[in-house]
Amino acid sequence: MTRNLDKAKSWIRSQANGTERYGITASSGARRLRTFGIWVQSKIDATTWFLNDAGDVRSSYFLEDTATEFDIQGLELDWTIVCWDANLRFVDDHFEYYSFTGSKWMNIKKQENVLYLKNAYRVLLTRARQGMILFIPCGSDKDETRPHEYYDGTYHYLKEIGIREI
Prior knowledge:
Blueprint: H1 5-15, E1 22-26, H2 46-51, E2 66-67, H3 69-72, E3 77-83, E4 88-91, E5 94-101, E6 104-107, H4 111-124, E7 128-135, H5 149-160
Parallel strand pairs: 1-2, 1-3, 3-7
Antiparallel strand pairs: 4-5, 5-6
């Protein structure tokens, strides 16, 4: 995992050999990653994203268009970057679930919506055949919708369970 998106992109490119396919993914609820150019509200053309070659800017190889759990459910890539937003946060000893509504994060209370969010990340974390890297932002003191604590708990938890940082 890394907290630097450029580092994640460099790493994933270095892992792929020959025609092995790689791409960038994020939860459809990852609304505060757009500062990094990760825009989940834009719908990708899945056929183009999955099948076009490295010379096509719309293909997954360019690491510009972000596929969500809807785009990749049932499909796989060789390598993925999974971008983790503050909609799924590890706080103290448990995960918390949020939805970005308007201009703030709202706690998800309905159990069916909690299950939906868990499933979204399960899909994202199981789309790579060979490997993946997690991108977990550092947060920002200048943006009240992305403070450090929204991301730090998840980062430290994943590090604690053995996911190594590059």
